[in-house]
Design goal:
By secondary structure, this protein is mostly helical. It is 79% helix and 1% strand. The chain has 13 helices and 2 strands, in the order H-H-H-H-H-H-E-H-H-H-H-H-E-H-H. Helix 1 runs antiparallel to helix 9, helix 4 runs antiparallel to helix 6 and helix 5 crosses helix 7. The C terminus is likely disordered.
Length: 368
């Protein structure tokens, strides 16, 4: 259960991400500003996490102390992983589509693997078959993601027109908006990868999932509000005009931020940032299918080919990562193997003693 629980949790997270992406896309097409959406999402997440963080801090105040190092790491994490990432991501989501946004997210395993290897979080041994599998799998994932986003072919569904709510000049051609959206999404994934890497030292400095997530959401709310006030000149953009916009903001804040931040911090602390990044291809498959069924977004035949490549790449990377998980468990608990051996010896000894006692008990009875 200890091995499979993070896998099950990560699969559930991909469904949450898919629902948030589709709901956000609908809210943006209804006319909501992407920058304002980021502020409301972070604010709702803070409202949910703040009382939970307070209760958690009362139980264990030693893990919730906020020193200068913790504050600096949380501030940088919020700036890069929430404020920068979400503003770029939702702008790209607005210009492109839900399926493209989920497809570009497959760059996360490759970028995270490169950064993690550069900073020494991932072991690279070119002679190892496992390392070759991780490299090959990430390359296949990237190729599949690019195929989903850019590979044309027969068009399966038509896309809707984009209303003029972006800070980018939408007088460009549709293909230009598409490529510009892909570029913004790619830059946002780089920010997300850095965010995942930085969460490791942030959690070590402030080892409390709920408190860490609450502080990040609070700082992101303030940072995003400053950015939005600087960009949005019209104060009417802050108005929520429909139940759909409110519902999308609440879902993104509660499920997309409050829940996922805590859960992903738990998963990263258990398995590392690359393990988290490897499940993004599953999010692509879910989001692409739902976007085609519910939003009738523009889907090409190349998306099917890319999806198959993503599944193959994910399977290869998971196989390559399996050995690292075993090594990680032995590193965290080096006595586990010895304990297992002692348990086996103890069971054997107990069985022998019982058998001896049984025989020793039978003999006097037989003699009588």
């Amino acid at each position: 259960m200890e091995y499979y629980l993070p896998i099950v949790v990560m699969l559930l997270l991909q469904f949450i991400f898919a629902g948030m992406t589709l709901g956000t896309r609908i809210a943006l097409l209804e006319g909501m500003s992407p920058r304002v959406f980021v502020v409301y999402r972070s604010a709702f997440a803070t409202i949910v996490l703040a009382p939970l963080a307070y209760l958690s801090s009362r139980r264990n105040s030693s893990t919730c102390s906020l020193n200068l190092r913790s504050f600096s790491l949380i501030f940088i994490n919020s700036l890069i992983g929430i404020t920068l990432y979400q503003n770029l991501y939702f702008e790209g989501l607005y210009l492109a589509s839900s399926s493209v946004a989920s497809a570009i997210s497959n760059l996360l395993p490759a970028i995270t693997f490169v950064i993690a290897a550069f900073v020494g979080m991932e072991k690279l041994n070119i002679r190892s078959l496992r390392t070759i599998a991780k490299i090959l799998g990430t390359v296949i994932c990237v190729i599949g993601a690019v195929s989903i986003a850019l590979l044309k072919g027969p068009k399966l569904l038509n896309a809707e027109n984009i209303p003029s709510k972006s800070i980018i000049n939408l007088s460009l051609e549709s293909d230009d908006n598409w490529l510009l959206g892909c570029l913004l999404l790619s830059v946002s994934i780089i920010a997300w990868s850095i965010f995942l890497i930085l969460q490791v030292p942030a959690y070590k400095s402030h080892p409390n999932y709920i408190s860490l997530s609450a502080w990040m959401c609070l700082m992101a709310t303030l940072q995003s509000a400053v950015v939005t006030l600087f960009i949005e000149q019209d104060l009417n953009a802050w108005k929520i005009t429909s139940v759909l916009e409110l519902g999308s903001s609440l879902y993104a804040g509660i499920m997309g931020s409050a829940v996922t931040f805590c859960v992903q911090a738990w998963c990263i602390s258990r398995r590392g940032p690359l393990f988290y990044a490897m499940f993004i291809p599953v999010f692509t498959i879910i989001c692409t299918v739902l976007a085609a069924l519910l939003l009738h977004e523009e889907i090409y035949f190349g998306s099917l080919i890319g999806a198959i490549g993503v599944i193959i790449g994910l399977s290869i990377v998971l196989w390559g990562k399996a050995k690292d998980v075993v090594d990680y468990k032995e590193k965290m608990d080096p006595k586990s193997k010895a304990n297992e051996t002692e348990e086996v010896k103890l069971v054997i000894n107990e069985s022998s003693e019982k058998e001896y006692s049984k025989n020793d008990l039978k003999e006097p009875l037989l003699l009588c």
